[in-house]
Amino acid sequence: MASAELQGKYQKLAQEYSKLRAQNQVLKKGVVDEQANSAALKEQLKMKDQSLRKLQQEMDSLTFRNLQLAKRVELLQDELALSEPRGKKNKKSGESSSQLSQEQKSVFDEDLQKKIEENERLHIQFFEADEQHKHVEAELRSRLATLEMEAAQHQAVVDGLTRKYMETIEKLQNDKAKLEVKSQTLEKEAKECRLRTEECQLQLKNLHEDLSGRLEESLSIITEKVPFNDTKYSQYNALNVPLHNRRHQLKMRDIAGQALAFVQDLVTALLNFHTYTEQRIQIFPIDSAIDTISPLNQKFSQYLHENASYVRPLEEGMLHLFESITEDTVTVLETTVKLKTFSEHLTSYICFLRKILPYQLKSLEEECESSLCTSALRARNLELSQDMKKMTAVFEKLQTYIGLLALPSTEPDGLLRTNYSSVLTNVGAALHGFHDVMKDISKHYSQKAAIEHELPTATQKLITTNDCILSSVVALTNGAGKIASFFSNNVDYFIASLSYGPKTASGFISPLSAECMLQYKKKAAAYMKALRKPLLESVPYEEALANRRVLLSSTESREGLAQQVQQSLEKISKLEQEKEHWMLEAQLAKIKLEKENQRFADKLRSTSSGQGLGLAQENPTGANATGQEETSARAALEPAHSTSLIGILTRTSDNEVPDVESREDLIKNHYMARIMELTSQLQLADSKSVHFYAECRALSKRLALAEKSKEALTEEMKVAGQNISRLQDELTTTKRSYEDQLSMMSDHLCSMNETLSKQREEIDTLKMSSKVGEERKGVCLQNNI
Fold it and tell me: Which parts of the chain are coiled coil (predicted)?
């Protein structure tokens, strides 16, 4: 069990490890892809930085040139402002200078126009670059957000994997500790098993030596006293009386009683159903009190009137079957002869059902053809006709299987013993089918009755008859359900009880052998009852041995017996003399006592009257006391009679002498009783020898079983040792593999953490570069403004 649990755990861990490995490969691919994407983004950022630097340089140069041009324009404007008042003063001189100034102005205008166009072009380029920079920055920010989300997801996955790895590590450590504890307990159990095997080997050696001697003795007794083995041949073995199983018989009788009650309920329901159906035919569709019914229905009612002669025998057959199962019989299929009569009664009832089925179908068709029949009622009649066909088919199926079960009690070759279980299961299926059919009949008949009650021509007699039929159908349904559930609950017991029969055989061969076996069983029961008579009280063994020695010695020497008789007679005469002597003494003592009483009475009379009255009252008590003393003395003087054999021989009356013939008769009777006791003891010794032979045989079987169990235990010990070594090897290999896996997983986690830290640094650099680009862009815009 432990190895199986370990293998299951190892398989689960291997599956988890393969899953984690696949997830790890997927994560590696994702990390590599992210690294490639980050490298491409870095290159793009470098290119963008370079383009930004070039644009910045151009912007710087343009701003510087613009500043120069602005300063030059200011100078020119100042010069122009200075030259205007001078031109007013000297117009003449100014005309020449105006020509020069116009030429310079035209040159400056052209130059200014060029600069304005160039500035406009630069502004357009700057705007385009700014828009492109914004677009790139927005893309980079969205990419950065997605990368951050992916990084967070990867971090969550990594955290989950680390948790799983830690949990698996803890589980593996716990499993390791448990396996170590199990290995220690297994080692202890192995040591205990070795000690036990050594003890068992010693015991087996002693038992083998003891039983081998007993086996030789028993074999010699068997070869000498057993004429033949009747269990060797199945024909002879079938005549052996099996062990009486009272519990089995009581159980079978209880089951038969329950089945009888169910069959009685079913029989009453069937009787009610057929009788109420007959009443309905007399009422509907034509009332026989008003008009004559059709000849078909007349014939149908005539057949239905005979239902009791077919239904009642079912109850009687089941009752006879129940009465045949008693506590003293052996109940198997070969001995249940009354099952055949029940099968015959069921066959006669099925013939009755086949006979009334066409009339029932034609009667339903006649109802459908009547003017009162509606379409719904016609549909219900068709359904009922189908149900009646199913009911007859189910009864035929049930009768077939019950007939097969009745074959072993009449025809031994009619049904094989291997087919008993299948036949019983088919009987249960047929009973369930009968229950289903009755449920359908109940359902359809209730619908039909409800439709008929709604008809305007429905009479009270028809309504009550329909209700009675419905109640009988419901009773039939309930009875069928009870029988089906009862049989399905007990079918396993029926199948198991089929093996109840003679020992070491497949069962009773024929009904004749089963009948002979039952006769032998009755004879055996009568013999056992005769043996149960109470034994007479016997003499204790030691006393009987002493008496036997005495009798043997007395028979060997008659003189000793005669001497004993003479001694006993002398003792008796002495005792009689002593008795006479003591009787005389008692008479003298009595006379003295009477004289003393008389004298005492005279003294009392001479005393005062009051004292005389008191003494007169005390005197009767004294007389009673003296009477009691006299009786006790007489009882003490009488000789004690002995109840033993010698006491009987020596006991005589006061005036009789023992007779020789009566004494010989007593000795003869005693020896005859003793011979009877010895013969009974001899029979008891024979029965004990047979019992000891059976014990020797059982001990030899137990020895063989013990040797087999020893071999099985040694093989189990070998297998257990191999399993222990294999488990230890697996433990070491699993420890190493798990340590290697843990180290690899820790290295992989470290590498993943490093890559994630690098990605975070790159993301930080990208953020910094984007911030620097935004600052530069702001500076450029300020400069342009």
Answer: 3-72, 137-196, 558-592, 696-730
Q: Pull the structure tokens for residue 297.
A: 């229905």
The whole-angstrom separation of Cα 457 and Cα 454 is 9
> What is the four-CA torsion angle of 143, 148, 150, 152, rounded to 10 degrees?
-170
With beta carbons less than 8 A apart as the criterion, state whether 697 and 218 touch: yes
Report the candidate in 725, 747, 745 with the shortest Cα–Cα distance to residue 737. 745
Nearest to 408 by CA among 515, 253, 313: 515
* pLDDT tens-digit readout, 391-404: 999 999 998 988 88
The angle, 0 to 180 degrees and rounded to 10, between the axes of the packed helices 609-637 and 558-606 is 180
What are the tokens at 110? 């052209």
Q: How far apart are CA 309 and CA 306, in angstroms?
A: 6
Q: Report how far Cα 663 is from the mean position of its chain's Cα atoms.
A: 77
Mutual orientation of helices 338-369 and 295-304 as an angle, nearest 10°?
160
Strands (E), 618-676: none
DSSP for residue 227: -
**Claim: this prediction has a pTM higher than 0.85:** no
- Which pairs with CB-CB distance under 8 Å and at least 24 residues apart come from 387-390? 387/437, 387/440, 387/441, 387/444, 388/357, 388/360, 388/361, 388/441, 389/357, 389/361, 390/437, 390/440
The residues, any chain, with a CB within 8 Å of residue 485's CB and separated by 6 or more, are none
Helix (H) or strand (E) segment spanning residue 240: none
Contacts of 759 (CB under 8 A, 6+ apart): 34, 35, 38, 147, 151
What percentage of the chain reaches a pLDDT higher than 70? 73
Token pair in block for residue 24:
């790890």
Lowest mean pLDDT among 166-170, 382-386, 671-675: 671-675
> 331 near 304, Cβ under 8 Å?
no
Range of weakest confidence among 185-194, 334-343, 665-674, 734-743:
734-743
- Give residue 528's Cα distance to chain centre: 41
Residue 89 has pLDDT above 60, yes or no: no
With tokens 């755990």, the residue in question is 9
User: What is the chain's Cα-based Rg?
Assistant: 63
Categorize the per-residue pLDDT at 51 as very low, low, confident or very high, splitting at 50, 70 and 90.
confident
**Cβ count within 10 A of residue 720:** 16
- The DSSP H or E segment spanning 109 is helix 91-225
Eight-class DSSP state of 290: T
Total number of residues shown for the chain = 785
CA angle 429, 433, 434 (to 5 degrees): 120
- Give alpha helix (H) positions in 370-510: 375-406, 420-453, 460-497
Residue 193 has pLDDT above 50, yes or no: yes
Q: How many CB atoms lie within 10 A of CB 638?
A: 11
Provide the token pair at 152.
């967070």
Looking up tokens 């003449």 gives 92
Which of 172-176, 526-530, 758-762 is the least confident region? 758-762
- DSSP for residue 409: G
Q: Which residues of 545-572 are buried (b: 16+ CB within 10 A; e: fewer)?
A: eeeeeebeeeeeeeeebeeebeebeeeb
Q: Please give the sequence-ordered ranges of beta strands (E in DSSP) within 132-208, or none if there are none.
A: none
pLDDT for res 647: 42
DSSP 8-state class, residue 502: S
- For residue 232, the one-letter residue type is K
Task: Tell me how far the alpha carbon of residue 722 is from its chain's centroid.
Answer: 33
Confidence of residue 511 (pLDDT cuts 50, 70, 90): low
- Please report, as a single letter, which amino acid is at residue 429: A
Distances (CA, A) of 265 to 31, 256, 765: 82, 14, 96
